[in-house]
Specification:
The protein is mainly α. The protein contains five helices and no strands. It has one domain (about 40-135).
Length: about 140
């Protein structure tokens, strides 16, 4: 029986064994995944993924459309941008972390692909937050 089938069947056997590679072990330590963790339900994983990608997309939309184009067009001060962008960006980064962790807790078969996607999106959002912080404190 497949690992996911065992997990969904409610098998008393601990199906999420220790990481099989050094890279998996590194991710388990980085994401604070307990050893011998049973996989969690994937439906929650997909909901967190949707939320975190939405927040990251909102942050990018604010940074590239609303703040530089719309606010000056309506006469709003440019200092408003970081006040909006920093909290939204930080929230997006928290959800990105939670999303990656959920994929690993679920032992999702595409956890590496989703981790890479989260890393790219999170890197872009982090860059925007740093730019806003430099704008505020620089």
């Amino acid at each position: 029986m497949e690992r996911s089938a065992l997990a969904s069947a409610g098998s008393p056997v601990d199906v999420a064994a220790a990481p099989v590679s050094g890279a998996d072990a590194f991710m388990h330590r980085l994401l604070r995944i307990p050893d011998r963790q049973r996989p969690i339900d994937e439906s929650e994983t997909h909901r967190i993924f949707s939320t975190s990608i939405f927040l990251s997309a909102l942050r990018c939309l604010l940074s590239y459309i609303v703040l530089p184009i719309v606010l000056p067009a309506v006469g709003a001060a440019s200092s408003v941008g970081p006040a909006i962008g920093i909290p939204v960006g930080l929230l997006a980064l928290v959800f990105d972390y939670k999303g990656i962790r959920r994929f690993w807790l679920a032992n999702h078969h595409q956890r590496w692909a989703f981790s890479a996607l989260y890393a790219v999106v999170g890197g872009m959002v982090l860059a925007l937050v740093v730019i806003d912080l430099v704008h505020v404190f620089g």
